[in-house]
Amino acid sequence: LMAATRRHFTLVEGGEYSIEVDPRKVDQATVVLLGELGFNRMSVGVQDFDAGVQQAVNRVQSEEETRAVIDAARNSGFKSVSVDLIYGLPRQTVAGFDRTLERVIDASPDRVSIYNYAHLPSLFKPQRRILEADMPSADTRLQILALAIQRMTEAGYVFIGMDHFAKPDDELAIAQRQGRLHRNFQGYSTHSDCDLLAFGISSISKVGPTYCQNVKTLDEYYDLLDNGTLPVYRGIELNADDLLRRSIIQSLMCHFELSIESIEIAHLIDFRKYFATELDELQEMVDAGLVRVDDRWITVLPRGRMLVRAISMVFDRYLRADRQRTRYSKVI
Description:
Blueprint: H1 2-8, E1 18-21, H2 28-37, E2 41-47, H3 51-56, H4 63-75, E3 80-87, H5 94-107, E4 111-116, H6 138-154, E5 158-161, E6 164-166, H7 171-177, E7 182-184, E8 187-189, E9 204-207, E10 210-214, H8 218-226, E11 232-237, H9 240-255, E12 257-259, H10 260-267, H11 271-274, H12 276-287, E13 291-293, E14 297-300, H13 308-313, H14 328-331
Parallel strand pairs: 1-2, 2-3, 3-4
Antiparallel strand pairs: 4-6, 5-6, 7-8, 9-10, 10-11, 12-14, 13-14
């Protein structure tokens, strides 16, 4: 795959080339090979070190094999190692996740991502084996998230927002301090709005103001390619309102603040008239001490940062018809 990529694209010297690995399926020799192929960033999947949680999700993975992969990456010259955790998993508890955080902090990765588990058994068959009774409550999930933010920041990591943490000298933390942080549908990035080309089944590309997704089965994917057709099955072109709302959500999620004047100038609107409904809805969060709204700025306050997704969702008109999805319990 890397050879094919090099044949068709010119890879920038010193660029960022990242790969996600499952520590259960790679060894030191594999990590060395990945480095030789040009990868210089690694994302290591963990989810949770708690044995009960691992058994519940059928992913048993020891701390030792995880640390071995992290150490091998560093010894092979990878300039950044990230660890991915998930909260909201079955049998997860605040105390158990606290122990996982302690072990992750001890491993000292450059970045840590803590994603919210989406339980959708109607869409994903393996999730049907999970008992609803084993799922943590919304309150427990909120406590876990709050604990994660506390533990990670106490350990010296910068809370980038929503689900990312980085060391102060990491590119993400520097970009946030300099106002250059960007977020796309894959997560936070140091790169400004740029085109994304996706290859493989179900993958999503972004080119200009458009998004498109590839077909979901391998047979259909190759059949279309063999017939000289791009394996795309759906797409969308953003309109002026989409672009406006995307810029607002981007600013809130990346910088925890929004300049009302800059939006009015860039999009030629009267902000308070255009978003009268959204501002009314935001008032509940203002009253709760999560957000401050004045004549010039919308600012996410410290206690609102872990709910920045819910705050940003106020400006997503596609979610407005489904009020249930805007509740904190669903976000958490």
